[in-house]
Amino acid sequence: MSNASLPISVSQITKRYGKVFALDHVDLEIRSGEFMTLLGPSGSGKTTLLTVLAGFTRPDGGSLKFGDAEMVCVPPHKRDVGMVFQNYALFPHMSVADNVGFPLKLRRVKPAEIAQRAERALEMVRLGGYGGRGVEQLSGGQRQRVALARAIVFEPRIMLMDEPLSALDKQLREHMQIELRQLHDKLGMTTVYVTHDQREALTMSDRIAVINSGRIMQLDTPRAIYERPKNRFVAEFIGESTFLPVTVAQGRVRLGEQTLRTATPPPADGQRLLMLRPERLRMLGAGEAAGDASNCIDATLVATVYQGDSSLFQVVLGDGTALSVRGASAAGPAPGALLRLAVNVEDTVLLAMEPAA
Amino acid sequence: MNPLGHARGPTQGAQRESGAEDALPNVQALRRTDLFERLGLLALVAPALLLILVTMLLPVGWLFYLSLLSDQGTFSLEHYQRMWEQPSYARTFWTTFQVSFLSTAICIALGYPLAYFLSEIPKRAANLCMIAVLLPLWTSLLVRTYAWLVLLQRRGLINNWGIELGLWDEPLALVHNLTGTLIGTVHVMLPFMVLPLYSAMRSIDRNYLRAAANLGASPLRSFWTVFVPLAMPGLLTGALIVFILCLGFYITPAVLGGGKVIMVSSRIANDIEIFFNWGAASALGVVLLVVTALIILAAARLVRLDGVLGGRERV
Amino acid sequence: MTTPGRSEGEIPIAQAAARTSWFRRAATDTQITHGARLWLYALATTVLLLLMLPTLLVIPMSFSGSQYLEFPPRQWSLRWYQSYFDSTAWMQATSTSLKAAFLTALISTPLATMAAYGLHASRLRHANLLTMLLLAPMVVPVILIGIGVFYSYVKLKLVNTLLGLVLAHSMLAIPVVMLVVGSALRSFDMDQARVARSLGASPIQAFLQVTLPQIRFSVITGAVLAFLTSFDEIIVSLFVSGGDNSTLTRNMFNALRDQVDPTIAAISTIIVAITTLLVVFTQFIGNPKKD
User: Fold this and answer.
1) Which end of chain B is more exposed for a tag (fewer CB within 10 A), N or C?
2) d(CA C171, CA C236)
3) How many structural domains comprise chain C?
């Protein structure tokens, strides 16, 4: 299995355009065989980082290693990585089989073997037998699979994907997410995947690197990124969230008059942001006890927004702060009802005080 | 600068001073690789550049030099002085500008409706009609000039028909004068006016006109206040190309003007072929080049020349 | 008997529209009718005809049997074509022109294609300046180029040689090819070249195996236009070709200035035929995108 993949080591990679840093001294270790997603808004630098890995963008400085080999000055055609683009970039003047066989032809593989391996690659993406077709005859999803087959046929140990599913419709996209992940598990190569869709990132990745303004904001597993974001940007970019200012004084976390319990020891004294996710808040009747060590906050219900599989309950706290709670759509309390919001200690997350972006 | 690779350019990268850039690993190696790549691409451009350098830039440069030499071989401005002093030069310049202005104006008058028509009919029909515009463009200039000579002569087709049909009694002097020159020149220049105009007009979103109508503008009003300004870049490009080509035009005025319409280019040719006066010819050529360059530079301020070099004007 | 659902006096809209004459039908969304635009159609058609006719009129005239050109010819004869093919001078000139044109296309097409690709793919700081330089032969007045080249060739002893002629014509053809190929490159999806390189193709391989096959129609069009540029070139040929290496255009121009020799009508017809074939060819191959 270790022959099928290489670890990637990114060290101090920097790319400037004028005064602006597209990549700002980025450090990133990607493990052998890992599925790593680069997640961020457009212009964040995630695509730039990918093109640096591919060799299309030359950084101003830094080191890039595939395994032990320094790659940063190596031209793209010598890097031996598979790459899938957003718009597939299939060669229209070649048949499907010729497209898939192209990298093998470049590597001077014998024609008989090319045909065999191309067919096998097509089978792996469930397009067995499609070799004779022309590119124009394929649907979007099929073209993406051909692009994939073309990228895996020469058994690269690293795979780079630049938002490969964003041109597909929702149903197909979700289906392909699972297929791609299965392909990765089967072949075992190190995969770096770029997307702006947080749900996609959470679904597919072993680890996610959230990128903004050319810097990595957090590098963690999907669960850790979702449940323990390290800063406001990550908390806002992934999932829904509300922020309440809290004060830490003498080791105690105070929201207004209340003291909150946290899972980890509280940080140093000062102002902090309390992050609450709407779906982690439970609604209890006024005065009801939570039953466990959860934190409780008193609130009044203002309105209910029905959204099908769940509903958004809009509440207001004692000091006038507005909050959203996400819960089951079963009949809830009427507007004006007094409530208690309970949140688990593990879900009570404190972040550094930062202004809204 | 558009780098190779997808980078859309940063929209939110951090802004910082360069500072400790060289403390990064591999900076020298990266710069060297970058340099080699640039040199490699330059090498692709080099052969064509070299050819143009040797066969055009050097000779024209030589002419600049010649224009500053007196007949004895010393440095002198006499050729330029002569241009300023002798009235025949003033006549030559006047004729040249006259022909150029009039030709451009007539091309606009004839070309604008044609381009508009072509931009309104379905694309396939337009492409077919385009052949009628492109074919003259690529048919030998001599053939076209010859055709007009035959048509416009004293005993040429037009005069023969006119007299036969009783439209006029004496053969009209349609050639070997300004009229013939203009007719021939306009015929040659028309495609150069129509092509950029058509291209600009085709890319005008008809929704603008619909919006104008919806807001209450009459068809004439919406044409004048919406369509014409949007087509203006195409018009200016066409007019510029035609005007500049007319300034330096030689063949057609020489043949159809019959020696009576002397433009700058004819004068230059005569200076060389008949008088062997390289100094005078070069000086005149330099003036022509400088005037052409000035006009282009001035127009480059008005019209984005990207539209000519490729890529469409986006409104 | 009325059709069910329709009351008396109602006419379906489609039928009413079909009954309107073409003149009253709307030509634009702003409801300008064809009738109101007739003047535009008439004017445009007239101009189109004016563009085509003079050249076309020469064709039947070339078959006139008399000493003078007349239209329509009273007698039809091939005597002027005979006179063309029988004349050593004309044949020599034609051969020179064809050779020069072919060599010009051969030289200028690869040179200009390489340059267009290099400029397109590069981040060269001075790409714009270089583009201007490469397009300069189109902008500098030809008469100036003509006498300049003449002067230099006298010094270099290249006057009246095929080599000198081809070099000068190639210089004139380079901008033409560059514009055509450059336009094709701009609408080409460079991601394909990138993909090819990520799959292991060196930049040269990527160009030859992926880019070139897809822009080949534009390259061919460029080559054809380079051929025509040289074949029809007059001014530089006037100064620089002569004697045995005189071009067809040079001879024609001199003949025009001396007297109107009807042989020229025959030659013109042949030239028009060749040009038409080539231009129509370029319009119908692949996906041509014009200047």
Assistant:
1) N
2) 11
3) 2
- The answer to whether residues C261 and C155 belong to one domain is yes
pTM over 0.90: no
Chain B residues with CB-CB distance to C154 below 8 A: none
Closest residue to A89, CB basis, from C189, C203, C209: C189
* Domain assignment present for C67: no
Neighbours of A61 (CB within 10 A): 23
In the DSSP assignment, the letter for residue A137 is: G
Q: Is residue C73 part of a domain?
A: no
Closest CA to A60 of A19, A95, A32: A19
Q: Kindly state whether B155 is in contact with chain A, defined as any CB-CB distance less than 8 angstroms.
A: no
Please list the pLDDT of chain B residue by residue as tens digits (315 residues): 333 333 344 444 444 444 555 678 889 999 999 899 888 888 999 999 999 999 999 999 999 988 888 877 788 888 888 888 888 888 999 999 999 999 999 999 999 999 999 998 888 888 888 888 888 888 888 888 888 888 888 877 788 888 888 888 778 788 888 989 999 999 999 999 999 999 999 988 888 888 888 888 888 888 888 889 999 888 988 999 999 999 999 999 988 888 888 899 999 988 888 888 888 899 999 999 999 999 988 887 775 554 444 444 443
Residue length of chain B: 315
Residue B114's domain comprises 88-310
| Residue C59 belongs to a domain | no
Min CA distance, A30 vs chain B (Å)?
Answer: 19
Q: Is the peptide bond before C213 cis (omega within 30 degrees of 0)?
A: no
C-chain residues within 8 Å CB-CB of A89? 189, 191-192, 194-195
| Tens-place pLDDT, residues A130-157 | 989 999 999 988 999 999 999 999 999 9
Cross-chain CB nearest to C55 (options B139, B244, B310) = B139
Residue B231 sits in a domain whose CATH number is 1.10.3720.10
Residue with tokens 């102002």: A271
Q: Are residues C154 and C256 in the same domain?
A: yes
Per the domain annotation, does B17 fall within a domain?
A: no
Domain hosting C11: range is 1-33
Radius of gyration of chain B (CA): 26
Decide if B144 and C137 are in contact by the 8 Å CB cutoff: no
CB pairs under 8 A between B and C: 276
| Domains of chain A: residue spans and CATH | 8-234 (3.40.50.300), 240-352 (2.40.50.140)
CB atoms C198 and A91 under 8 Å: no
Same structural domain, C263 and C137: yes
CA distance B112 to B106: 10
- Chain A interface with C: residues with Cβ < 8 Å: 54-56, 75-83, 85, 87, 89, 91-93, 102-103, 106-107, 150-151, 154, 160
